[in-house]
Amino acid sequence: MQLRIEKSNQLKPLPEDESKLGFGIHFTDHMFLLNYDEGEGWHDARIVPYASIPLDPAAMVLHYGQEVFEGLKAYRTPEGNIQLFRPEENFKRLNLSNERVCIPQIDEQFALEALKELLKIDERWVPHNVGTSLYIRPFIFATDAHVGVRAGAHYLFIIIMSPVGAYYAAGLAPINIYVERKYVRAVKGGTGTAKTGGNYSASLKAQQLANLQDCAQVLWLDGIDKEYIEEVGAMNVFFVIDDKVITPSLEGSILSGITRKSSIALLQSWGYTVEERRLSIKEIIEANRNGTLKEAFGTGTAAVISPMGLLRVDDEDIIINNREIGPISQRLYDELTGIQRGTLQDTYGWITPV
Ligand SMILES: *Cc1c(COP(=O)(O)O)cnc(C)c1O
Q1: Running DSSP on this structure, what letter comes out for residue 185?
Q2: How far apart are CA 241 and CA 212, in angstroms?
C-alpha cells in the first residue's frame, strides 16, 4: 500500500517545559489516517497535518461505540535515537480487539511501518528528560452515517501522538486503590479482553466514587461473585504474598497487558515463582492479617509500574508495605524503563529502533 505524505507548513511550538508535560494534553504536528470502505478495503493511507476531522452527526461510533484503540510509547535514548517497546504486540492486540467488535482486520506490518514514518516526521516531539516519552494512540471507529445498530461498512484508522511526562503527577509513588463491590467492568463473554472505548465509559462511575474517597484508581472484581480480583483501571495487577508473585489468570474478562507479559518474563528470569491464577480479595485480606502480604502493584504502558500503598475494602483500609515502594516494584520499574530508554541491554528483543 502507498503512503501519501503531506507535511504541515505551520509547525507548532514544542511544549516549553518537559517537566510539566502532563499526560495526553499536547499533540504533535502530524497524524496518520487510513480509510476502510466495504468492497474497497483499507485504502488512502496518508500522513497529514494534525487537524480536526469532519464527522457526520449520525456517524455510528457516536451512537453505538464501535471503536478500538491502543496505547504505546516511543522513547528517546541518551544518544538521541528513538525506539519503540514491543510495538508488534500492540498491533496484534488491535486486531484481536477488532475481531471482537466486528471491525475489519488491519495489516499489522503496514501499520507499524506507517507509525515509524510518522515518528520520523514528528521526531522533534519525542522528549528527552528521564521519565518522559511520546505516547502513541492508534484507534479505529465506524464512520457510517446510520442510526441503527449494526456493524459499520466504513471505518477510519487514525494514529495521533502526544509527548507525556509521568502518568501520575507524583511519579513512582504508591497510590490508594478503591476495591469496587457494586459496579463491574467486564464479564466473561463481554468485551473486557478488547481495548474498546465502551469498557472505559462503563468504568467512569466507579472511578468518580473512588476519587471522592481519595483513591486514585478502582480495583475491579469479577462480575459474578464480586470476589476475585481482575485488574485496575488501565493496569493489570500483581500481589507479592510470601515470596510468590501472583497475578490473576486471563480467563476472558481481563485485558492482556504487554507490560504484564513483560513483567512475568522478567520476574521468572530473576528466579521468582509467578502464579497466574484466580485470586480472591479474601486471600489478600488474610495475607494482610498474617503479615505475608508484601507488595502490590499495577502494570501498564502509561504508568509502567504503579505500586499500591492502600486498598480500601468494605470501609476497611489495608496498608501495604507501609505505603512505601517495594523492592520488586522498584526493580521491575528500573528494568523496564531502562530497557525502554535504552540504558539497559535488551536481551529479549523487545526494542524496535525507528
Ligand atoms: C491497556 C490496558 C492495560 C495495560 O496494557 P499494557 O499493554 O500493559 O499497556 C490493562 N488493563 C486495561 C483495561 C487496559 O486498557
Answers
A1: S
A2: 29
- Residue of 72, 91, 235, 336 to test ligand 1 pocket, by largest number of atoms within 8 Å of CB: 235
Nearest-CA residue for atom 13 of ligand 1: 234
Chain centroid to CA 214: how far?
23
Q: Copy the grid coordinates of residue 236.
A: 493489570
Separation of CA 302 and ligand 1 centre (Å): 9
Summarised one tens digit per residue, pLDDT across range 292-343 is 999 999 999 999 999 999 999 998 999 999 999 999 999 999 999 999 999 9
Task: Convert the pLDDT of each residue in 179-233 to its tens digit.
Answer: 999 999 999 999 999 999 999 999 999 999 999 999 999 999 999 999 999 999 8
Per the CB < 8 A criterion, the answer to whether 162 and 312 are in contact is no
Going from the Cα of 300 to the center of ligand 1, the distance in angstroms, rounded, reads 5
Q: Which long-range contacts (CB under 8 A, 24 or more apart) does 88-92 make?
A: 88/112, 88/352, 89/258, 89/261, 90/138, 90/258, 91/138
DSSP 8-state class, residue 280: B
pTM of this structure: 0.96
Nearest to 266 by CA among 238, 227, 230: 238
Question: Of all protein residues, whose CA lies closest to atom 10 belonging to ligand 1?
Answer: 235
Cβ-proximal residues to 98 (8 Å cutoff; 6+ apart), any chain: 68, 104, 105, 106, 140
Candidates 136, 50, 25, 155; CA nearest to 90 is 136
Q: Which residues line ligand 1 (CB under 6 A)?
A: 71, 195, 231, 234-236, 255, 257-260, 299-301
